[in-house]
Design a protein that fits this description.
This protein has 374 residues and is α/β, with parallel strands linked by helices. It contains 12 helices and 9 strands. β1, α3 and β2 form a beta-alpha-beta unit.
């Protein structure tokens, strides 16, 4: 696969297949993290006296719709806590980050002005000035100046890896994960180990860079897809299972080759909470302030209607394509991906009919940077 930084992005624009209109799970994440964000901000504002400006970074913001939902919550906390402390609330510097391939235009220009106007209208006299800047780059690299960021938020991004694990292909045996695109029940055990190692390396690097960039009293709230069971093949999101089934169906139709699937592995890992905590502990720059596990169903996440399996399959298909479509198009081309997601919708429809409640696990973790002694 081409360098992930060049092809991993959500579907841009505001059309019917865009991420902006198909990010239901991410919108629910704002509700999941609301209390955690509030408590982190209260701690932050209490720890830093006479703060004049507060720098917030949203890592992997995509089109920005959910960014402004969480910003609205943050403004409320700042106004309330500043009033309690008897001081003027700080101005806000909002740093929006995503990969260079992201559709930045959907947020910038008229859309940014419109969202700011809506916030001004909603907050009235409690609105706080904020100044927005876009920072292009991978969050597995340095993004910001040293000790410049007070609060970091990232929603459903950390499970994306910096790259496909290179050891999934052996010089002697070829592809190790044949006819799969992620960890599955037919994957050799070594595949799970390789994916875990990649996640450990990536998340460790993520923490090291954020530690360098964040203020001593800084806080970070992260949402990511997680697993509760120890078997990685049964813990994976069913997206990949259904997608692999659709791809293998295209092989049978002669639309693609089996070797195409063998060459395609998702830059994605679903960790357990124990794995996340162990990496945080071993890296050593942050204390775990809070952690919560949310269990939801696909019917809740995607707003599916019970009994309407055909339409439900199409809705899940649109959401999946909004997330992974551009990456697949870089690999197969747009025409084949069109065909792929027609088949995917049928598979999802059938699966939802047989398993009415597909589960979805979200981890929310709040980290506080350890204060360095002078």
């Amino acid at each position: 696969m081409t360098n992930v930084k060049e092809v991993l992005r959500m579907t841009g624009g505001t059309g019917s297949d865009s991420y902006a209109r198909n990010s239901n799970i991410q919108k629910r994440g704002v509700a999941f993290s609301k209390v955690m964000v509030k408590e982190a901000m209260i701690q932050l504002l209490t720890s830093i006296p006479c703060i004049k400006s507060l720098t917030i970074a949203d890592l992997g913001y995509s089109s920005g719709a959910n960014t402004f939902n969480i910003l609205s919550e943050i403004i409320d906390v700042i106004v309330e806590r500043s009033d309690q402390l008897g001081r003027e609330p700080p101005e806000i510097q909002l740093l929006l980050n995503d990969l260079p391939s992201n559709d930045f235009n959907t947020l910038l220009g008229p859309n940014l002005s419109l969202r700011k106007e809506k916030l001004i209208e909603a907050k009235a006299e409690k609105f706080l000035p904020f100044f927005t800047a876009v920072v292009s780059g991978s969050f597995y690299e340095r993004l910001f100046c040293e000790s410049s960021v007070h609060f970091v938020y990232s929603s459903y991004c950390i499970h994306w890896l910096s790259n496909v694990p290179k050891d999934l292909k052996s010089e002697t045996e070829g592809a190790l994960n044949k006819r799969n695109i992620y960890i599955s029940e037919t994957s050799p055990p070594i595949v799970s180990a390789i994916y875990l190692e990649q996640f450990q390396n990536d998340f460790t690097m993520f923490l090291k860079h954020r530690s360098k960039e964040m203020h001593n009293h800084g806080h970070m709230v992260l949402l990511l897809v997680g697993k509760k069971c120890s078997d990685p093949s049964k813990a994976a999101t069913v997206f990949w299972k259904w997608l692999a089934e659709a791809l293998n169906g295209m092989v049978l139709k002669g639309a693609i080759k089996a070797s195409d699937i063998d060459a395609l592995n998702m830059p994605f890992y679903v960790p357990s909470m124990e794995e996340v905590k162990m990496i945080v502990k071993n890296e050593g720059s942050f204390d775990l302030f809070q952690d919560t596990i949310y269990e939801t169903t696909y019917h809740d996440d995607f707003g599916l209607a019970f009994g309407e399996h055909g339409e439900n399959g199409k809705k899940v298909s649109r959401n999946c394509r909004a997330i992974i479509g551009p990456l697949l198009e870089s690999f197969f081309g747009e025409a084949k991906v069109d065909e792929l997601f027609v088949d995917f919708a049928k598979i999802a429809s059938k699966a939802l009919q047989q398993e009415e409640e597909c589960q979805h696990i979200t981890f929310a973790i709040s980290l506080r940077k350890k204060v360095k002694s002078k």
